[in-house]
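In this notation, each integer encodes one residue's backbone shape. One such record reads:

___
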Amino acid sequence: MKKKFGFIGVGNLGVHLATNLLRAGFAVVVHDLDQDAAKRLIEPGGVCASSPKQAAESADTVITCLPSPAAVAAVMTGENGILAGLKGGGTWIDMSTNDLHEVKRLAALAADNGIACLEAPVTGGVHRAAEGDITVLVGGDKPVYDEHLQAFQAMGGTIIYMGPLGSASVIKVITNMLAFIHLVAVGEALMLAKRGGLDLTTAFEAIKASSGNSFVHETESQVILNGSYNIGFTMDLACKDLLLANQLGREFDVPLELGALVEQVFIRARAQYGGNAWSSMVVKLLEDALDSAGIIKPGDTTAP
């Protein structure tokens, strides 16, 4: 018999994960502070709850997919939170990009209530989540992971069991840090190509076929070049993830020179464009500094 899920947080990413669970035949009760966002899950078969507690009351497992550690803590421990509704023997799965120590703290509180915990952050971008092909990184007790493998396979393509609780939080912060470093590098590369008089469509293909290629170039360069910048991931989220990465660097005595530099670049970009701006707009800092109207304009793929 398939487990019944509560799903808290159906924003740009969570909406696709919850939808994929529904498509796989799981029962899903959803809650989001944005009621209109939650209502998007009604058509594919979801049921809306008025609170995290209500979503948890009829669930075997509750998933959180939220923008910050503070948001996760509030949803878990609030008066109408998950711990107030989820019965002993249930499971909480956090699919947020969370702080290592906060995950462990909340897992201990859950364990006091007889609730198991997994962390399962995802990586690969919103577009891959929509296709059910996102990578899911899981930490926690292996038997609990095995119980939920079918659900992870419904939401993602590549599922990697990382080990004990906390290990997935660490690797997720690492992968995001790398992505943001690559994004800043992509912006510099494309601007250099433009100023060098290259056709940027051809330059994109050359980089893609070169030793300088990356997943970020293949995906985010395209939305930069078409001027939309829309990758479904905001400056606020990028700054939060880079903060977590650099905190780990200090904790583990690893000098993250690039990580620290890129964090400051993103903080400057957030100040310039706002916390809700797409994170890929970090490349506009260089464009604006060089008084460029944009890396590419419609009908103009070469340098001016």
Remarks:
- The mean pLDDT is 94.
- The chain is about 50% helix and 15% strand.
- The first helix runs from residue 14 to 23.
- The CA atoms of residues 76 and 82 lie 5 Å apart.
